[in-house]
Amino acid sequence: MIGGRMELSTMFGMLMQGFVVTLQIFALTLLGAIPLGVLVALGRLSSCKPLSWLMGVYISIMRGTPLMLQMFAVFFAPYYVFGISTGTGYKFTACIIAFIVNYAAYFAEIYRSGIQSMPRGQYEAAQVLGYSRSQTFFHIILPQVIKRILPAMGNEIITLVKDTSLAFSIGVAEMFTTGKALVASQRTMVPFAIAAGVYWVCCLVIEFILRVIEKRLSYYHD
């Protein structure tokens, strides 16, 4: 502290501590939402009408209501619905659950569009070659679907980086929450500027990684 004002390095260090929580939310959401989205998409495409309808309702609710409201629902439901008291540690758990079920719905629709865009001849050729339905999907269809949906998935992944800031609504102290506290205590916009720069750099890194993956998956190379 110099003259009552916090040093820039101290601000940056505090923001980086919050950024660690931001990265945890980001990583755990992807870890849960990507495979869950596949299951939801397969359920949506299922020939079992009740299952398909149920997955359609789930997707509609998740995409049609704010993520912040979903976090409130997950956080308060154990007590107000089931009478179960939760500790302070449940804040982070509730945040992760809400993010996973929300993003799984968006990923599921991206998967579904990719799967349905595949020509019917791919399935017929695989059947002639003696592939089972599961082998056809995982060895022939899915690799091609991944290439087709990567740009759309990239957009959602970048959006997720910024959406992590919504965790403040239930008291999870990620980078935005830390920045807001520093702005209020230090009466300066510098913490917000630093946070904005960190978010931007993080998105640039993700964009670079996605471009590399797209290039590797491209059918044509320079």
Class derived from helix and strand content: mainly alpha
Poorly predicted spans: none
CATH superfamily: MetI-like
Number of strands: 0
Q: Tell me the number of structural domains.
A: 1
The main pleated sheet reads as: none
Q: Helical stretch count? A: 8
Radius of gyration: 21 Å
- Give the termini separation: 54 Å
The proportion of residues in beta strands is under 5%
The overall average pLDDT, rounded, is 88
Shape: flat
Written overview of the protein:
- The protein has eight helices and no strands.
- By secondary structure, the protein is mostly helical.
- It has one domain: MetI-like (MetI-like fold, Orthogonal Bundle), CATH 1.10.3720.
- The protein starts with 7 loop residues before the first helix and ends in a 5-residue tail after the last helix.
- The model has no long low-confidence stretch (mean pLDDT 88).
Summarize the structure.
The protein is mainly alpha-helical and 222 residues long.
How are the SSEs ordered, and which strands pair?
Layout: H1 8-44, H2 49-64, H3 67-80, H4 90-116, H5 120-128, H6 133-163, H7 175-186, H8 190-217
Helix pairs in contact: 1-2, 1-4, 1-7, 1-8, 2-4, 3-4, 4-6, 5-6, 6-8, 7-8
Primary descriptors:
222 residues; mainly alpha; MetI-like fold; 8 helices; 0% strand
